[in-house]
């Protein structure tokens, strides 16, 4: 695995009671140098209930100073309607 510490495998689906609970899981995982960003997208809808999915991005910073850039280490989609989450990247 390129990034250690992410608590789910790609394409793993799981249920989680709320967005806050999902964020809490990711923060507790202490992924190295990770920043967690949340965005909503009207473009992606849950196939089960067609509600908009919330995207949770795990970004990791690489390098220092001017050479710093961020990599997307993991991407989750969460459906607040169903309480289901999936790691898509
Ligand atoms: Zn749903």
Euclidean distance between termini CA atoms: 12 Å
User: Structural class of the helices, strands and pairings?
Assistant: mainly beta
DSSP summary, beta strand count: 5
Q: What is the radius of gyration? A: 14 Å
Can you walk me through this structure?
By secondary structure, the chain is mainly beta. It has one domain. The chain is 11% helix and 46% strand. It has one helix at residues 19-28, and strands spanning 13-15, 34-45, 52-62, 69-79, 84-87. The chain has a 5-stranded antiparallel β-sheet with strand order 1-5-4-3-2, covered by helices on one side. A hairpin with a 6-residue loop joins β2 and β3. It is globular, with a radius of gyration of 14 Å. The mean pLDDT is 91. Zinc ion binds next to loops.
